[in-house]
Amino acid sequence: MKIYVPRDAAARALGADQVAEAVLREAKARNIDVTLIRNGSRGMVFLEPLLEVERDGIRQAFGPVAAAEVPALFEAGFGAHPKALGPTEEIDWLKRQTRLTFARCGVVDPLSLADYEAHGGLVGLRKALALPPEAVVAEVKDSGLRGRGGAGFPTGIKWETVRKAEAAQKYIVCNADEGDSGTFADRMLMEGDPFCLIEGMTIAGLATGATRGYVYIRSEYPDAIAVMEAAIAAARTAGLLGASVLGSGRGFDLWVRAGAGAYVCGEETSLLNSLEGKRGVVRAKPPLPALEGFLGRPTVVNNVISLASVPVILAKGATFYQSFGLGRSRGTIPLQIAGNVQRGGLFETAFGLTLGEIVDDIAGGTRSGRPVKAVQVGGPLGAYFPRALFDTPFGYEEFAGQDGLIGHAGLAVFDDSADMLHMARFAMEFCAIESCGKCTPCRIGAVRGVETLDRIARGDGAAVEILTDLCNTMKLGSLCALGGFTPYPVMSALTHFPDDFRSAHREAAE
Questions:
Q1: CATH number for 44
Q2: Which of 1, 249, 289, 323 has the most crowded CB, counting CB atoms within 10 A?
């Protein structure tokens, strides 16, 4: 009997380790031969810990399962039980997804290369090895893949710049410093399908002439660090990494580096400084990292999901990938649904769903049962969208047209009890704490922003004009997105929820 219990950090936080121990204990007590596989998460966090049993080649799901319920599952023969969900692939929340990047997450043993290959792994790498570098770059360009870390810059153009750069050494750097609140796609991919990221980075190296790569992972992700290091060691042993990738004579190798937890190191130039052993502060651009990046050499800096999307593009072709999405937003996007929702988790889908469909249908509305008031899209620096904008399609240009950001595609849902003036203050305070201090608009502006919002909360209506002017200065004058994007949550809260700011005046007057 094969039983799957996720080793994903979210599942572990909800008791997956205890469930796994209970499975082994119960199997031993009943003298049942059980193979326990610690897979990645399927992304349905609202059903974790999700236990799966393979029967006649079909995996049956049970969840959320507590350790105390395991004996009853054995007693029922993993059949009729209140926690039975039927075949995993038939669960509506999972069945409705378009899983390209996350196709193997939750399906395979994360550290089994044989499992990875059996589910389509390495097809893209082998195709890349058969093509000249410029053809690989062209495939990525034609796919329409854009940076999934938030900026949305065309991945193929960045690769092309590095490929054409003249240098004795080039690098591939994976930005796995996933710091946005409510986001977990990078971590889930690294813990559930690490060979996919390794394959994507290797393809990037072959395409650009880079022979060394680094995965910069935030220190708060010890499980992801451990899994990636184990996967890299296995890949090196199998000849996927090293002086001759799959015997091709072309080299690429990879290492993990842990960051110290600074939010600003999610910005590519701060990350590069940190990777070099320096303080994580923003660099002025130009020069671009694609020309002068890590150690002053041409460097591709891509997010985890950007790089992990490359194997399927090479395996199935640019036209296949480009057929999903809308406008200039092509392919799929892993929505990370969090906050006050009935169903939170990762939902991979083609660009184009409206915000209302995501919040009301997929997420199922609020867990509290109260009306949805706002949805923050794009992490702590993303704009707050009111219900009046829920018909906005999920796409880069479509969100930009509403003064919003897709960012890393994290969504945090709030019900009508949320105080938007308080949320605006949180954004400024967050920026003040996390600022690297390199530029004045961010370093000083965020501190003044907190003070100005406190004045508004005390009833100073004239301070609203000061806040607006301050946000404009930060947006236009900051060196990086930390200071430049902080005005998005502040101004969207002020624009769409003015009553929350006026009520503060009334309460102060009373």
A1: 3.40.30.10
A2: 289
